[in-house]
Description:
The structure holds two protein chains of two kinds. Chain A is mostly helical. Chain A contains 25 helices and no strands. In chain A, helix 9 crosses helix 10 and helix 23 (283-315) runs antiparallel to helix 24. Chain A is elongated and about 135 Å long. In chain B, the strands form two sheets. In chain B, strands 1-10-9-4-3-2 form a six-stranded antiparallel β-sheet, with no helix packed on it. By secondary structure, chain B is an alpha+beta fold. Chain B starts with a helix and ends with a strand. Helices cover 24% and strands 35% of the residues of chain B. In chain B, a hairpin with a 2-residue loop joins strand 9 and strand 10. Chain B is built from one helix and ten strands, in the order H-E-E-E-E-E-E-E-E-E-E. Chain B has one helix at residues 2-35, and strands at 47-52, 60-66, 69-76, 79-84, 95-97, 102-104, 111-112, 118-120, 129-135, 138-142.
Amino acid sequence: MNLFLxxxxxxxxxxxxxxxxxGSWLVAxxxxxxxxHDHQKQREQFLGSAHAxxxxxxxxxxxxxxxxxxxxxxxxxxxxxxxxxxxxxxMCARCxxxxxxxxxxxxxxxxxxxxxxxxxxxxxxxxxxxxVAVCTDCHGxxxxxxxxxPQSPTHPSNIPRTCGHCHSNxxxxxxxxxxxxxxEQYQTSHHAHLLQxxxxxxxxxxxxxxxxxxxxxxxxxxxxVCGKCHVRQAELFGKSPHAEPAALGLFGxxxxxxxxxxxxxxxxxxxxxxxxxxxxxxxxxxxxxxxIAGLLRQTTTDYESAAAKVREAxxxxxxxxxxxxxxxxxxxxxxxxxxLQHTLAISLLQPVxxxxxxxxxxxxxGVAWLENVENWKRRALIPIxxxxxxxxxxxxxxxxxxxxxxxx
Amino acid sequence: xxxxxxxxxxxxxxxxxxxxxxxxxGFVAPVVAYLWPAQRRGPGTQTVSxxxxxxxxxxxxxxxxxxxxxxxxxxxxxxxxxxSAVCTHxxxxxxxxxxxxxxxxxxxxxAFDIAGRVxxxxxxxxxxxxxxxxxxxxxMVKSA
Lengths: 408, 144
């Protein structure tokens, strides 16, 4: 153990604290506004913000001349306290659309352009709707934090709550004829479960809808949106007979079977629920469904039964290395089969199912051989015990013989 | 009567002698096995041969089993590298994409570079690496 570690940590922590204090003092000293406008809460919020860390001061957003004694000069021509959402967007964009200013921070400068293409932006700039979300509604005002900060409302784990501020407000959503249970639905989804488990790459609202350019994907775009993460499934779906109507916007693609906000982990039950939505009276297509579902069900059942046998054999202490390898091969084929079903092509599914079946058979053959050896070993105990009993009998006979010889 | 007794006694001695020999073998065999030089290692640090060095062309790969787990061995211009062949996404066995010089997962299009890092698709973690050594022209992969 490094004995100098505690003192090293102490020194570094002291240095960091000093830097932070000095940073806050510098911002405060530069920002004459805070000499008079000493709103304790705002001051604290601002000093902890990403802007304060970057050296931004009140004047950078609000303008004005903080040193001027006279109020008219004080509220110079460029002073602004935005009283409408368009002005807020313009105020933020003054820096955030400036390539030179944003370059050091690696931030994109097309956020306002994106925003203008969003449903929020369309409402605000097209209809001057002051109820829609603008920069400060999602990012905060004086307390803006970097998105990677866990306290930030734009941190992935906080996104559903941030969007839910408006999108779970039934009164507000009713004005736009939008559902107000979408965030609630999302919280029950497989995506949300992953996020709750701490997987920050799990999809949130902005993954599918976009952030600054947030809008619902059109029917024809759904496959592209889901395909951003589910690459293989999207590629295979593109080869299916569903692809063309989906591209033409006649069919919802992925969400038609899997749903959208409340999306669940796909199970075989989906075949019974989803296909009939469009093909209820189509015997030919339902036949294809039954074939695919049957193939998947059979392969899954066989794989699970083989996996259970391998688990049981391993638990009994048998060396199942080779069988686990075969099982992994069966698992690979089964997982491929699950993705391949999106093509709806039996000719592509069949060979993979056969390969999975072969791997399952090999696994079971291996386990059976191991169990056979184990059984033989158990049976071998019978002659061993018999040998011990015979030996004990022989010793007893020998003792009797010796006793008799010695006349005892 | 006397000779009959002698025969019975001799037969009993043979049986006892034979039994004791079998008994002694049962005791001595594990001791000999223990003293004999080890032919294989335990599962903790098992080593497996992936074949002769000349069996691998440059940018060629092979999957071998080590401790019941598939391992992919690739020959690069800088030497041999070995990684777990189990995709870190859903556990499918990966394969070698010779055209792109990538380790590819056939299930969900995940891809790993020759350092095992994720370069495409959903895998959340890189592939764990194994040690490789060329001993007497034999490519040996070590588990730990």
